[in-house]
Amino acid sequence: MIKLVTRSIKNSRDQKWRYYPAISYSGTITRDKLCERISESTTFTHADVLTALCAFEEAIAEKLQSGGMVKLGSLGSFRTTLRSSGGEVSKDDVSAKHIRSLHVAFLPSSTLNKQLQEQAQYAMS
């Protein structure tokens, strides 16, 4: 069940307050707790799951650092994005010095989005 709260946001055009539903997050699961949950529902030990997840994290980071994308089946994909400062008139003047920051983006798969849409239940708290 996804718990909702009401948030007020001031509209920038007419300066009036509007009210919207927002998710009231119920916490974060740590890697250790995730390993626990997985080991409880499989034949893998906590250490097995932790080892696999650590290797998984390293493999994802390695692929992203080499300019690749990582697709995780019906979960979604990771890719790097960047923010750059001002454009140049000539393409020959564009260089890495224009990069302000590098980020990791996660794009959920259509399967995951569809599953969330179909199975999500809401309750105002």
In short:
It is built from 3 helices and 6 strands; from the N terminus they run ββααβββαβ.
Quick tags:
single chain, 3-stranded mixed beta sheet, 3-stranded antiparallel beta sheet, flat, 32% helix, alpha+beta, 125 residues
Shape category:
flat
Largest sheet: 3 strands, mixed
Weakly predicted, low-confidence segments: none
**DSSP strand content:** 25-35%
Distance between the termini: 11 Å
Radius of gyration: 21 Å
Overall pLDDT score? 93
Which structural class do the helices and strands define? Answer: alpha+beta
* Strand order within the widest beta sheet: 2-1-6
Fraction of residues in helices?
A: 25-40%
SSE pattern:
EEHHEEEHE
The tally of beta strands, per DSSP, is 6
**Number of helical stretches of at least 4 residues:** 3
Written description of the protein model:
The chain is an alpha+beta fold. Helices cover 32% and strands 33% of the residues. The chain has 3 helices and 6 strands, in the order E-E-H-H-E-E-E-H-E. The chain has helices spanning 31-40, 46-65, 110-119, and strands at residues 2-10, 17-23, 70-72, 76-84, 99-108, 122-124. The strands form 2 sheets. Strands 2-1-6 form a 3-stranded mixed beta sheet, with no helix packed on it. It has a 3-stranded antiparallel beta sheet with strand order 3-4-5. Helix 1 crosses helix 2 (46-65). The longest helix has 20 residues, at 46-65. The chain is flat. The mean pLDDT is 93.
